[in-house]
Amino acid sequence: MTKKRKIQSMSGRHVKWIPAKKVSPEKKKKLLKLLKSAEENHAKAGKNIKLLRRSLKHKGYL
Asked: Domain extents for the chain?
């Protein structure tokens, strides 16, 4: 079974499935590394936002 990706129109009502393109192992490895990096950065940003919010609340800005 081939992997498929979904394409939607602007209204979101019409959905057309087309086969996904083949990805070379090197490119797949690179993309997975990039995804992992993005997830780690997102987690760090979430922690920093929580600390900033706590600091602002403590100072009386929120």
From this structure: 22-62
